[in-house]
Design brief:
By secondary structure, the protein is an alpha+beta fold. It contains 14 helices and 18 strands. The strands form 5 sheets. Strands 2, 3, 4, 5, 8 and 9 form a 6-stranded mixed beta sheet that branches. The protein is globular, with a radius of gyration of 23 Å.
Length: 476
């Protein structure tokens, strides 16, 4: 089904900022600290500017948390992953520390972000910008010839990125047979790690993700392009997070991201959906393996992936102290979507918890005590991150909903071709993906899941940000 574009009229997203209490500005005391950051561990860092790191981020990004280098060895692969060492720059208990705890993370809106840290720091002195020497937490991870991690460590280092790449550039280089030398093994790494994920029972759900992008003086809805390079790069972060979780769990102190196993009811519902859509589910195959084998753009795949989101409910954060109390209390430390324990450590410029988890890992590996400022914050972090994650999700949805309503505001009553992502279930309305313009909306009636249908637009209200459709089956 071709995906076309339609421009929305000019408007901004200030009302959404106000609704959620988001401000781009910082108090003078916070700005002063951000302008004057210094590396408190400068004297103890190792110099690894010899490693030709590259960054891989969306075009235009300046808050660069991560830089990567991958090389082949006689036994497998060696990954070097440099993460901005924010913990060395933020003064514990200072104005900047206090403000970042209040914000929790960076919030992204179509007309600009609301950053976790002042831009002078997150897009300047702390960012792993091309050609700049920066302080970093340097992860070194050894993999065997099957892509399984066999050894890992992290230390404070100085690093330098030699190139700033985006996903399309990385993909084009691989496709042309001319990848950047620093990541010549990225595709091999990504394929190995994807296979390892299936062996772990991981579940990767790939659904169309809407984004609002500028077009002239207005806005349009687009589907986020996802190349194979996106997935390969994500696997580097996932691998690092898995190593970090293992370090903290073995030491009995830290914070991990958790997700409970899918319920038997959700799994059976997915199997029924597969049967209804004519999708084969071999005996003994995991949900992750079945999903990974589906054709990318088939309408039935979209419906199957939508149903599979029911497998991944209840994501949370779990902090535990030096006695491992929370982990020992019976709470699961697993992330079922990844198929292993996992922690956030790779985006400290944009997410609060990463700074503290990284600090724990650095201390444990160095054989030193976890700094008091990091240890004392751990019990508070889950609630902070839950709150900010909830706000981020609502802000994303509100921006898309507002743009959809503006795009469609003068087309109520028209008919559109759509793919049914989810059929109606009890009081829950069906969900459809319209291709022109790109809209995912609720649909009254009982359209059949996984099929292409014609729907009629019944509501496009810019005040409530609600868009809805109606389906009436064609009768002979």
């Amino acid at each position: 089904m071709p995906l076309t574009r339609l421009k929305a009229p000019s408007f901004d997203f200030d009302a959404i900022r106000s609704e959620f209490g988001l401000s781009d500005g910082f108090d003078p005391a916070v700005m002063k600290e951000a302008r004057e950051v210094r590396d408190r561990h400068a004297d103890s860092r190792i110099d690894r500017t010899d490693i030709p790191f590259v960054t891989i981020d969306p075009p235009g990004s300046k808050d660069l948390d991560q830089a990567v280098h991958i090389e082949k060895t006689s036994n497998g692969l060696l990954v070097h992953y440099a993460i901005a060492d924010v913990g060395a720059l933020v003064v514990p208990g200072g104005a900047l520390d206090t403000e970042t705890r209040r914000r929790g993370q960076t919030y992204y809106l179509p007309d600009g972000s609301v950053p976790l840290h002042p831009r002078v720091m997150s897009e300047g002195s702390a960012s792993l910008l091309e050609g700049q020497t920066r302080c970093a937490a340097l992860w070194t991870i050894e993999l065997d010839d099957a892509g399984e991690a066999v050894a890992w460590t992290v230390t404070r280092a100085t690093v330098r990125s030699v190139a700033r790449l985006d996903y399309a550039e990385v993909q084009a280089g691989v496709d042309a047979g001319t990848p950047h030398p620093s990541i010549a093994a990225l595709a091999e790494f990504g394929s190995q790690r994807a296979a390892a994920a299936i062996r772990r029972g991981a579940i990767d759900i790939t659904l169309p993700e809407q984004e609002v992008v500028p077009e002239g003086r207005g806005w349009r809805i687009a589907l986020q392009p996802r190349t194979a390079a996106d997935g390969w790069n994500a696997e580097v972060s996932l691998l690092t997070g898995m190593c970090a979780a293992r370090i903290m769990l073995d030491a009995g102190i830290g914070i991990v991201r958790t997700l409970p196993p899918a319920s038997s009811e959700a799994l059976e519902a997915l199997k029924r959906t597969a049967s209804a859509l004519g999708i084969d589910w071999p005996t003994g195959a995991s949900a992750g393996a079945v999903l990974a084998g589906l054709p990318a753009d088939a309408p039935s795949t979209l419906a199957m992936m939508t149903r599979a989101t029911g497998l991944l409910r209840g994501a949370d954060y779990l902090a535990f102290d030096s006695a491992g109390n929370a982990a020992a209390s019976g709470e699961s430390v697993e992330h079922s979507g990844i198929g292993a324990p996992y922690a956030h450590v790779t985006a400290p410029l944009r997410r609060l918890s990463d700074r503290f988890a990284t600090e724990v890992c650095l201390a444990v590996v160095a054989g030193t005590s976890v700094p008091e400022w990091a240890a004392q914050a751990l019990p508070e972090l889950p609630a902070m991150m839950r709150g900010s994650d909830s706000v981020a999700s609502k802000v994303d949805r509100a921006c898309v909903d507002l743009t959809e309503a503006h795009v469609l505001s003068n087309r109520v009553g028209e008919s559109f071709e759509a793919v049914v992502l989810r059929g109606a279930e009890g009081k829950r309305e069906a969900e459809v993906l319209v291709s022109e313009p790109i809209v995912i909306g609720k649909c009254q009636g009982e359209p059949p899941a996984g099929e292409s249908v014609t729907v009629r637009l019944t509501q496009a209200d810019t005040d409530s940000r609600k868009v809805s459709f109606d389906y009436s089956p064609v009768t002979a």
